[in-house]
Design brief:
By secondary structure, this protein is of the alpha+beta class. It is built from twelve helices and eleven strands. It folds into two domains: 169 residues, GAF domain (Beta-Lactamase); 171 residues, Alpha-Beta Plaits. Strand 5 and strand 6 form a beta hairpin.
Length: 356
């Protein structure tokens, strides 16, 4: 059953939307119905985020709306001082401390919607999305005095958004490792190069970014000698190492089989090399049950907005191939290999390159 078939079933459960706590939709409210239909037409998480943000900002008139992923970081201090907000789509923004947003912080602590209204200041409204281990996402709106009807419409649309986002998110996660899958990679990576971006997004996209391909060395031998269950365990444990080695704002994908893709935001190639060398060494030191040690080979390249996604992937793949052909368990940068004369810069005709 497709995501949108499930969505249609969800929305058809009740004509007055009484399944949404605290909300009753009247048949005369055509604008709200239109907004819900607009949300259900979204095919990926980024489009869903932009659709809700734009709709709510129109409804709230002078209000600004953000949707965040909540990242929990452990530490010796109060855990709530270790929470960060990643604005979605998170590849476009730097993380922000939760403590900078009083309404959001209170909402996460109480796991309830919070509306702060102070005379002479903008209203601040926060509504959490709660998962099995606490608040996972958060809606935050700021603007002039919000009316009761505006808050009610916001709550209805946010509830519908949560259902849709959960369905899309499950479709974009790898079932074994829990990392983003290839579908998610193609969606996110292509969006970086979408034409007609706003000036604000172009300014954010000017931050340096790096793409790396990571491949487990001699992975087929694990499956052949120990069986696929042990091979799966290697993939799971490697995904855990990756989750700890990269920032919450970085994007980590299982591209297929034993190959992974990592996109580092706001990161130069020089810094990325240090990060990936540290990751490679940590993988090399890790001990897997029965198997012992495994290593990874890495190829990386900078992401340039004037290049097609396929060109960038091809460059990272060539650097990865060089790593594997020259001893494995190493990290190489495409631009450095070209500068050293070890690889040639291919001449490509952009008109003949297809996007995925």
């Amino acid at each position: 059953m497709s995501i949108h078939t499930k969505t249609a079933m969800l929305l058809s459960m009740s004509d007055d939307f009484s399944t949404i706590p605290g909300a009753r939709l009247q048949q005369s409210d055509g604008g709200l119905i239109e907004a819900i239909v607009g949300l259900t037409s979204c095919r990926d998480a980024a489009t869903l985020v932009y659709t809700l943000k734009n709709r709510l900002e129109n409804d709230l008139q002078t209000g600004s709306v953000s949707i965040y992923r909540v990242e929990y970081k452990t530490g010796d201090n109060d855990q709530y001082q270790q929470l960060f907000l990643h604005e979605l789509p998170e590849e476009m923004h730097d993380p922000k401390p939760l403590s900078d947003y009083p309404a959001a912080e209170e909402s996460v602590r109480k796991q309830l919607p919070v509306l702060k209204q102070d005379n002479g200041q903008q209203d601040s409204y926060a509504y959490p999305m709660i998962g099995r281990q606490g608040v996972t996402h958060l809606l935050h709106a700021a603007g002039n005095r919000f009316s009761e009807s505006q808050i009610k419409r916001t709550e209805i649309l946010w509830r519908v958004w949560q259902q849709l986002f959960s369905l899309i998110e499950r479709n974009e996660l790898d079932g074994l490792t829990g990392l983003l899958n290839r579908v998610a990679f193609e969606n996110r990576f292509t969006q970086i190069f979408t034409a007609g971006q706003s000036q604000k997004r172009r300014e954010v996209d000017s931050d340096p970014k790096v793409l790396a391909l990571v491949d487990i060395d001699h992975f087929k031998q694990v499956n052949d000698q120990f069986g696929h269950l042990y091979g799966d365990e290697v993939l799971v444990q490697l995904s855990h190492i990756m989750s700890h080695c990269f920032r919450g704002s970085d994007l980590v994908f299982r591209y297929g089989g034993e190959e992974f893709v990592v996109i580092l935001r706001n990161c130069t190639v020089e810094t990325a090399r240090i990060i990936f060398e540290r990751f490679r060494e940590k993988v090399e030191r890790h001990q897997y049950p029965r198997i012992g040690q495994k290593t990874v080979s890495i190829g990386m390249t900078s992401i340039e907005n004037n290049q097609l996604p396929t060109t960038i992937l091809d460059r990272a793949d060539k650097a990865l191939y060089f790593s594997k052909e020259n001893g494995r368990n190493q990290c190489n940068v495409f631009e450095e290999l070209v500068a050293d004369g070890k690889l040639e810069l291919p001449s490509s005709d952009p008109e003949n390159i297809e996007l995925f």
